[in-house]
Amino acid sequence: MALIFRVIGDCTKCGLKDGFGNIGVFGDHVLRGCGQCDYRERIVLPAVRKKVLYLDQVFFSMAFRAEDPRFIEASALIARLASMQLLVVPYSSVHEDETHQWKRYAELLKFIKTVSRGHKFERAYNVPRRQIVKAFRAWLADSPAEYQLEVREGLRDDVNRWEGYFFVDVGGYNKDVDLVRTLKAASTSGLVDLLDHWVATPSSFEQDFQAEYEAAGRGYMDAYMKMMASVGAGNHDAFFNAPLITKIVESMLQVLPETVPPDQRLRRCAEFLMRSAHFRETPHAWLHAHMLAQLRTDVKDGQFANRSRATQKLSGFFMDVEHIATYAPYVDAFFMDKAMAELVSKPGVDLEQRYGVRVFSLTNWDEFLEWLRSIESAGMTPEHQAGLEAAYPGQTF
Q1: CB 29 within 8 A of CB 387
Q2: How many helices (H) and strands (E) does the chain have?
Q3: pTM of the prediction?
Q4: pLDDT at 173
Q5: What are the backbone dihedrals phi and psi of residue 25, each rounded to the nearest 5 degrees, phi first?
Q6: Among 209, 376, 229, 382, CA closest to 286
Q7: Is the CB of residue 32 less than 8 Å from the CB of residue 84?
């Protein structure tokens, strides 16, 4: 006897009327059974290759408000493609951080998770950590510096599987909301304070992104050294309370060969982070450095001369950078706000050319809808249609 969630007819073994149907969908097959006897069937489903779309907070916010007909139409199309197993729209920990700044954060977060159908990206701090550790191993082995991207680094689960009838949402948010809000405001203020310095400091684009690489590497080392100094001073809780950025160097130390002497281990980490092409080729570091270098170029070109306007335009800039630098290499398309779409399309970044990800915003809205519609026309093969009918009988799309 089984619990039937999609009835398809009578049991051919025991004859139970309307007692036979789908027990569940399990990635690559459907399991069918009878609600009374032990009869079972296993239906193999065709392989799927879903497009992965990242929706920035601006899309989720507009869709949630349901005031702009453009976002209502696009949301309906996205939901339809997702239910047809052709598209997946995971959410990320950066979405959670931004959503918790809203008064109606619980409703918005529920909306985001519903659109995402339970699919989630790896947590933001884990993605650069994994990239850096892999690149560090390659550097230690004298392997080529070119980074070999693997989707599993950015996505928590294999999305190319047929979805079951339910998904489990493990709730909970353990960050300090007020601290996140304070840090966001402070980062914007600090960035605006740098603008005049950038204008007054002559430097080339190449010098700017090299400076950003060095700052990132130094930041990882400084965070770890600060934690160890605190531990050395007797604060053993520092191991548990230190910022997650300290895990970068800690993870690197764990993969160093035992043959490296103790007094050389941190030096090897610093050499990799500050001087190696391997570190510079990691997607997070590359995009982070090039986006900030492109911003410097734009500032020098006079695009942020008005301070109050600059503060408004750059509010949340670092969260936008984090969205893109962390997850863009792992998706087929990325919807972001117009300012960031313009930034990443400039020669200094050229996100589409670098990682093959389509960039969409309100600026090229029609292209976005065309891309979404093309997914159905390309993916709805007779085999896929048969898979839908087997997995989700009675459902209309």
Answers
A1: no
A2: 18, 8
A3: 0.90
A4: 47
A5: -110, 130
A6: 209
A7: no
